[in-house]
Amino acid sequence: GRGDRVAIVLPNGPEMATAFVAVAAAASTAPLNPAYRADELDFYLTDIGAKAILVAEDESGPTVAVAERLGIAVLRLIALRDAPAGSFGIEGEPIGPPAAPELAEDGDIALLLHTSGTTSRPKLVPLSHANLAASAAHIGATLGLRSGDRCLNIMPLFHIHG
User: Fold this and answer.
1) Which positions ≥6 away from 98 have C-beta within 8 Å?
2) The pLDDT value given to residue 34
């Protein structure tokens, strides 16, 4: 729900894009690099204060073990193969009692990223829905994009430009 923080550790693809938007609609999302080592995951998940983490159903790296050690609920994304791209289900234990859905508002934190950490430890950077909308509008205006245009993004989806 609003104010909760959910980490996403998924490879690039339509499921990652859909999961990001779905989580951000009602909580703060923190996309993380699937190639992070256990010590990096420990730092980022702790710094974020994640309540849950969304991983691929076949996640075999250190992500699940680190999340479980930190007491973070693990949710597995199950891609639906015979459905439109980006369709998925989620498996995992309930995090708490069911609550009425409450959608995010402009000032709510949509995205949690970290600085690169070139001069010290990476710092958490929260971006609101209003921040993201303004950034998208600026990029669209700068590139002269119109409603019929399509844009191919090759950046990792856990990156600020993703």
Assistant:
1) none
2) 95
Quick one: CATH architecture of 5-90+104-143? 3-Layer(aba) Sandwich (3.40)
Identity of the residue numbered 92: G
The answer to whether 23 touches 109, Cβ cutoff 8 Å, is: no
- Tokens 């234990």 correspond to what residue? 93
- Name the pTM for this structure: 0.89
Contact partners, residue 4, CB within 8 Å, separation at least 6: 27, 28, 51, 52
Instruction: Tell how strand 52-56 and strand 28-31 pair up.
Output: unpaired
Instruction: Give CA 139 to chain center in angstroms.
Output: 21
Q: Whose CA is closest to 107, among 89, 79, 128, 123?
A: 128
**The pLDDT value given to residue 162:** 60
Q: Domain limits of the chain? A: 5-90+104-143
